[in-house]
Specification:
The strands form four sheets. Strands 4-12-11-10-9-5-8 form a seven-stranded mixed β-sheet, sandwiched between helices. Strand 13 and strand 14 (about 355-360) form a beta hairpin. It folds into two domains: about 5-65 and about 320-425, Aspartate Aminotransferase, domain 1; about 70-315, Aspartate Aminotransferase, domain 2 (3-Layer(aba) Sandwich), CATH 3.40.640.10. The chain is an alpha/beta fold. Helix 11 (about 320-340) packs parallel to helix 14 (about 410-425). It has helices at about 5-15, 70-80, 90-100, 115-130, 170-175, 185-195, 215-230, 250-255, 280-285, 300-315, 320-340, 365-370, 375-385, 410-425; strands at about 35-40, 45, 50-55, 110, 135-140, 150, 160-165, 175-180, 200-205, 235-240, 260-265, 275-280, 345-350, 355-360, 390, 400. It binds ligand KE4. Ligand KE4 binds near residues 21 and 142.
């Protein structure tokens, strides 16, 4: 029996579904998950010693490739001085200053341990700052698993959401409006009717949790204008896009100054580190300064900060993002060209170091559109790529990630593997 399968069967006895995060169970694509035992650069090795070119990258953090020697050394050096103190450290100030330097919209920042904590705290802060209860999210965007955000669209245009998960009381979701990504008209209608009641809008400024979906400039700028006019806090959830799409993040690409930003993934370099930050007058409401409570035993953990800070230094090297973006774009274009050559309906898109693959005619711009793509065909493609030694995200609704360890040669190998896989669909 495959060691992967053996571990999966064993794991299910003590861990629900055998995994500690649902998407890892391969439920969306079928088959059995690969238990990864080692990762280095652009590659991962599974329990059966199979090697794969990795385009999950821990869902975004591994932007330097896995086990970058500088990051590993920073972690080792921090660890020998102790793992956690529950007290302030100089390193937390160092990384806070680095984040504020890189993102001018962030005047003050609070470190936490996960993206979920970051978005949950940012929403509570926006509610505390505005004294309002209603929040807006967009269908297809994922911001972690706090109750207010596990909400699906209500039936009518301005009806409040319904829980999208068991265990979330309807009362919790009744303050959450779910709108359609890229729907400018709906923004105008909603803010005309409810603008003065809305505490915050939280969005993925470039969506990556319904596959890669890019916003229109009109959508982004209308949202900033309407939130400004109504005193609504605009939260850019850059947990995924932060330092993934560029050194100035999505807000820099958009030329937008959000009121609050959430970060994660890349800023932790693979360790549990995330953050929320923004306007000083809003951040002044967070405890111990203000009455909005937020806390965490391992917040600003020195080992995680060491991984994050060393990562943030390395991504500032000249040409880092131009090379990463060019290679990611080459991958997306190469995949689309391969599909065209073999006569499979598939398109692809990319921005910075993230890409999307869609089994449909045109690049989608909303959840409804991406939901029309051929998921069954993606699933077959996913497994054929595994057979070719390429590990894609195990879901048709996830973005893919390239690292600086993905050389031009690796990109070309991947395109060639995809062409072989596509002929077998
Ligand atoms: P975490 O709590 O998983 O650290 O972050 C939640 C989160 C918040 N905001 C955005 C934009 C995110 O993409 C995420 C988490 N992303 C998923 C990937 N689709 C994490 C993978 C998983 O759930 O296992």
């Amino acid at each position: 029996m495959s060691r992967n399968l053996e571990l999966f069967e064993r794991g299910k006895k003590s861990i629900p579904g055998g995994v500690n995060s649902p998407v890892r169970a391969f439920g969306s694509v079928g088959g059995n998950p690969r238990f990864i035992k080692k990762a280095l650069g652009a590659r991962v090795w599974d329990a059966d010693d199979q090697v794969y070119l990795d385009y999950v990258g821990s869902w975004g953090p591994a932007i330097l490739g896995h086990a970058h020697p500088v990051v590993i050394k920073a972690v080792q050096d921090a660890a020998v001085d102790g793992l956690s103190f529950g007290a302030p450290t100089e390193a937390e100030i160092d990384i806070a200053e680095e984040i504020c330097k890189l993102l001018p919209s962030i005047q003050q920042v609070r470190l936490v341990s996960s993206g979920t904590e970051a978005t949950m705290s940012a929403i509570r802060l926006a509610r505390g700052y505005t004294g309002r209860d209603t929040i807006i999210k967009f269908e297809g965007c994922y911001h972690g698993h706090s109750d207010s955000l596990l909400v699906k669209a209500g039936s009518g245009l301005l009806t409040f959401g319904n829980p999208s998960s068991g265990g979330v009381p309807a009362d919790f979701s009744k303050h959450t409006l779910v709108l359609e990504y890229n729907n400018v008209e709906q923004l105008h209608t909603t803010f005309r009717e409810l603008g003065s009641q809305i505490a915050c809008v939280i969005l993925e400024p470039i969506a990556g949790n319904m596959n890669l979906i890019q916003p229109s400039a009109e959508f982004i700028h209308t949202l900033r204008q309407l939130t400004e006019q109504s005193g609504t806090v605009l939260i850019y959830d850059e947990v995924m896009t932060g330092f993934r799409v560029g050194l100035s993040c999505a807000q820099g690409l958009h030329g937008i100054t959000p009121d609050l930003t959430t970060l994660g993934k890349v800023i932790g370099g693979g360790m549990p580190l995330a953050a929320f930050g923004g306007r000083a007058d809003i951040m002044a409401k967070i405890s111990p300064l203000g009455d909005v409570y937020q806390a965490g035993t391992l917040s600003g953990n020195p080992v995680a900060v060491a991984a994050g800070l060393s990562t943030l230094k390395l991504i500032q090297e000249p040409g880092f993002y131009s090379t990463l973006s060019q290679r990611t774009q080459r991958l997306a274009q190469g995949l689309a060209a391969a599909a065209k050559e073999v006569g499979v309906t598939m398109c692809a898109d990319s921005i910075g170091g993230m890409f999307g693959i869609y089994f449909c005619e045109n690049i989608p711009s909303s959840y409804a559109q991406v939901s029309q793509s051929d998921r069954a065909r993606f699933n077959r493609f996913f497994h054929e790529m595994l057979a070719e030694g390429v590990y894609l995200a195990p879901s048709a609704y996830e973005a893919g990630f390239v690292s600086s360890a993905h050389s031009d040669e690796i990109i070309e190998q991947t395109i060639a593997a995809a062409k072989r896989a596509l002929t077998r669909l």
